């Protein structure tokens, strides 16, 4: 909880206060460190876990691979993935493959990431995210079409592919995907955010224009943010 709220120090203190640490507590702390880009600390904690006599499970390696991905530690991630079966006799799942695709994609190894992704939807989603970062429009289009053929009723491929077009400034292509989504009757689930000001909690749902229409200042601010998003190649599909 502390880590997800941005308070990593309190998360570490809570972990240190645990008298008898088990696999669950170690896994949780590995995820927390990885989430905050503390890859080296996450790996050291993993070593501490092994020295304590505990055996890692599949969740341990998801946390470790995520930590490597967020810290750009490609070779270490490869070694950890291989050690799952060779050292710990653990089989990998689709989530581990998705972590490897994310690890390789973030680091720019897109061709290798694509080989890993194959037809696994969750892995393809990670690959499309990497294509957006590295401006690989052609690969994104190919992967997106592959996702549509595997799961034609899934809106995710449209959204992620549209993000790639927006990031590269191809707004017309992004608009075509919007229209295609509408024609297929697909909608992106609206996101919801909360903010607490003066002990009052207010929620905002994407696409809800009621609050905007009755507040001129808020409307102007949102329009300004929309223009900035366009300038930086961001998409709000």
UniProtKB/TrEMBL annotation:
One Pfam family per UniProt: PPR_2
InterPro entries: E_motif, PPR_At4g14850-like_plant, PPR_rpt, TPR-like_helical_dom_sf
GO molecular function: RNA binding
Superkingdom per UniProt: Eukaryota
Mapped PPR repeat ranges: 22-56
GO biological process, one term: RNA modification
Keyword entries, A-Z: Repeat
Descriptive protein name: Pentatricopeptide repeat-containing protein
UniProt lineage: Eukaryota, Viridiplantae, Streptophyta, Embryophyta, Tracheophyta
